[in-house]
Specification:
Length: 270
């Protein structure tokens, strides 16, 4: 019977401890190429941990604006091959027209830049333009509480030390949903997809709201803020630092942004 946890592989290693060495085994995170194919047309290949790929595909489609709601999704199938994984997404004619208009060739990586953007004007146009509904009260205590509880909900990180997590938490600091992946963007997309598929969070009725907050075990780059804004998330807390562009976009969009959320310390940036 295979007892290897999903998303991990057990590999043989030679462990060195001072002058001593011994054969041993380690758990390592899975990283495989995953292709997202819309109505038969391949759009992107990213490196991801092959768990919750339906959530990943759904979250990516929503956070990148390829889908504007669940009503535009017709079918989703995951196909494993020797080369990697293909996720086949069937979308409505209206969504596919939008996809063809915006189509760009890019190679997704665990640390992504401005993939497929070929001009400063195109970059500006690609940023989300919506306003989100950030809550009124300060949430620093709730952010601290939720992030302090997050490690207990990261089984892949506990074994491999190589995964990121994204979590949905209540304003009381209670964790409601967690997704892990080798890539920080992928972890966030998996969370967004899971929220949409389970009718929780800001995507429950297709409109922005302030039902809860997103927490990430990474820095808060402009891509992470952009994904949250695009799906209506009002609060983002990151364990590490934000970037200047992330702060600017958060301020412009009304998103409450916290960084350096470690121990008892939190910094509010927007």
């Amino acid at each position: 019977m295979n007892d290897t946890p999903a998303g991990l592989q057990r590999v043989a290693v030679q462990r060195h401890e001072g002058p001593q060495q011994r054969p041993d085994h380690d758990w390592v995170i899975d990283e495989v190429p995953v292709a997202l194919v819309y109505n038969g047309v391949s759009h992107v290949v990213m490196l991801a941990t092959p768990t919750a790929l339906d959530d990943l595909a759904m979250g990516f489609s929503l956070s990148e604006g390829l889908l504007q709601g669940l009503d535009e999704l017709r079918d989703l199938q995951v196909a494993h091959t020797a080369q990697g994984v293909s996720v086949h997404i069937e979308v409505s004619p209206r969504a596919f027209d939008r996809f063809k208009h915006r189509r760009r060739q890019l190679a997704g990586r665990t640390g992504c830049g401005l993939c497929g953007i070929d001009s400063l004007q195109a970059f500006e146009e690609a940023l989300p333009q919506r306003q989100v509904a950030a809550p009124g009260p300060d949430l620093s205590a709730a952010v601290r509480r939720a992030l302090q509880a997050l490690p207990a909900h990261q089984p892949l990180q506990a074994r491999s030390g190589a995964s990121h997590a994204a979590a949905w938490a209540t304003f009381g600091g209670e964790l409601a949903l967690v997704r892990e992946d080798v890539g920080r963007h992928n972890a966030l997309d998996k969370l967004i997809g899971a929220l949409a598929r389970t009718a929780q969070g800001p995507m429950a009725d297709g409109a922005p709201d302030a039902r809860g907050m997103v927490l990430v075990s990474s820095r808060a780059s402009h891509e992470m803020v952009s994904k949250c804004v695009r799906v209506g998330v009002g609060t983002l807390g990151a364990i590490s630092a934000p970037t200047s562009m992330a702060i600017t976009l958060a301020q412009r969009s009304g998103l409450r942004l916290y960084g350096f959320c470690r121990g008892d310390a939190v910094v509010a940036y927007a």
